[in-house]
Amino acid sequence: MSMPSPLPAIERARRRLLLLGLGEAFCWFLTIVPLFPALTLPFVSFMGAFRGAALYTVVVLGLLFGVLAAFIRQKKLSPLKTPVQAAEILAGGDLRLKELLITGADISGWGENGAVKRGVSAELSSLQVKNAAEALESVDISRAVPATGAVRSFFFAVLVNLSLSLLFLFGPPIYREGALLAAGAEPNPPLTIGNLELIITPPAYTGLPEAKESGVAGEVSGYPGSKATISGRLSYGVDEGLWEGPEGEEIALFVSGDRFSVSWVLSRGGVYGLSFKKGGLAAPTAFTEKTITLKIDEKPRVELLFPEKDLEVAGTAEVAVEFTAEDDF
């Protein structure tokens, strides 16, 4: 008499265990691999001639550590279970059910004439397998073999990769520049800034005329509320530029070929800087931070000339006075 095939419910549980385990291990792989490029991108511009070899090494290390993490996780989970191990998991803490399922799973794997070879009654063996199959009908495989670990690993992998994507898209530009260099883009040569011209337009209340200076170094000085405009020529054309002020405020430069200009209102002192980009990469320049100095609007000065000392007069009397007044405008 031939023996029944392995219990279908136990086989489904084995497949579920295997798929969930492999899925969780793969999620660990996806979590580890992108960390290496993400940690490397900010330093790509400093690698120089070794950039290609360094990036190749990083990719290989990322893959190796990803595979290692997946292997360790898979080893810990050990998702490839025998029918007896699967039966034990399905039984949970029910000792009677556990004994019944383990016995049924063991017998169902004996194969044809397995009972005869072991000197066991084939009828009793079939009955044992039948009882185990009936008991399995009340077992919820999805509850006995939950997907919690795999789901948690999946969302963690998504969170890590989403965070790295946001860092790449909205983080410091050095990440995007590193990606461009990693893709084979050549770094921009040093950019020279020259022929600087500074125009200071004082606020209307001062009555002062507009002041224009050429060949300046970039230092700016003016009264609060003045409009400062600085322009110059570049050694080669760029795609964009940025003015960065004392408090971190930013203004996009007007760029046309190898010319640029930018205007802002003087509201606080400190330093400002200029940066440029071409082809998505920074154009390095020797233009250091320049100072912004606010001039002080002095209070008017008034001096009484006459009378020279205190006078005692009637309340209705008129007193002639002489004075001088000065203001810086």
Description:
The chain has 329 residues and is of the alpha+beta class. The chain has helices spanning 8-32, 35-40, 51-77, 83-91, 95-108, 114-117, 122-136, 141-144, 148-170, 173-182, and strands spanning 193-201, 211-214, 220-222, 227-234, 240-244, 250-252, 254-256, 259-265, 270-278, 281-282, 290-294, 301-306, 322-326. Strands 3, 5, 6, 9, 10 and 11 form a six-stranded mixed beta sheet that branches. Strands 2-1-4-8-7 form a five-stranded antiparallel beta sheet, with no helix packed on it. Strand 9 (270-278) and strand 10 form a beta hairpin. The termini are far apart.
Secondary structure elements and their pairing?
Layout: H1 8-32, H2 35-40, H3 51-77, H4 83-91, H5 95-108, H6 114-117, H7 122-136, H8 141-144, H9 148-170, H10 173-182, E1 193-201, E2 211-214, E3 220-222, E4 227-234, E5 240-244, E6 250-252, E7 254-256, E8 259-265, E9 270-278, E10 281-282, E11 290-294, E12 301-306, E13 322-326
Parallel strand pairs: 3-11
Antiparallel strand pairs: 1-2, 1-4, 4-8, 5-6, 5-9, 7-8, 9-10, 9-11, 12-13
Helix pairs in contact: 1-3, 1-4, 1-9, 4-5, 5-7
